[in-house]
Amino acid sequence: MTQKRFHRHVETQGISFYWILFVYLIVGYFYPVIGFIALICMIGPVVTSIKRGRYWCGHICPRGNMYDRLLSRYSPHRPIPRFVRSFGFRLFMVFFIFTMFGVQMYLGWDDWNAMGKVFWNIILLTTIVGVVLSFIYAPRTWCSFCPMGTISSWVAPRSGKLPTNFKSVHVSDTCQTKCKNCARVCPMQLTPYNSRGQAEGYLNPNCLKCGKCVQACPLKIAELTHSQASES
């Protein structure tokens, strides 16, 4: 008997802008200097995470948008392997990617096209890896160990140190965790129901603030709102 999968696709609300990734890859192939635009998606997630957590990854990243809007429809939504979410593996990926990046930049130094090509190559190769993993496991598998996502999670607000107007998922203490719909639709395969009744809300640093768990809650007792601790 085929086992019913736990995780599933849910429609993503908002504007579609994954086309930016396609334009970047196509134009960058002919004009390598365009590759420098990738700096936006390298610096942006980390800077915004200081105040908002991994908001960038869930709302602004063109590649993440592609995973949610396109690949999620066809992905098997299998559990993301635990080892790729481990601290050790994520730390390795940060050092590996930045080491490769540094070496290539050194070799292409003083040549704007060559340096731009380094950025373009990284985006292309990591996108290919992400797409392949989407069809093997889940759409956001790459996001579970993306170097910039990892660094963003390191600087995300923690309990007791929440910035003003910080938003997190709040689950009412009336939740019985029987349906676990919030976990079923979470792109990162997290468990928001574990924060039921907590004033600060769900503070997992890998939460994308996408609101899909709120959308999927059948009793409407989950909401994405300001944490009480940040309002005091």
Task: Report what the structure shows.
The protein is 47% helix and 4% strand. The chain has 232 residues and is mainly α. The chain folds into two domains: 19-155, no CATH class; 167-231, Alpha-Beta Plaits (2-Layer Sandwich). It starts with 18 loop residues before the first helix and ends with a helix.
* Measured distance between first and last alpha carbons: 53 Å
> Reading side by side through the largest sheet, how are the strands ordered?
1-2
- Overall form: globular
Q: List the uncertain runs.
A: none
Summed up, the helix count is: 10
Give the radius of gyration.
Answer: 18 Å
List the domain count as a whole number.
Answer: 2
Average pLDDT over all residues: 92
Structural class determined from secondary elements: mainly alpha
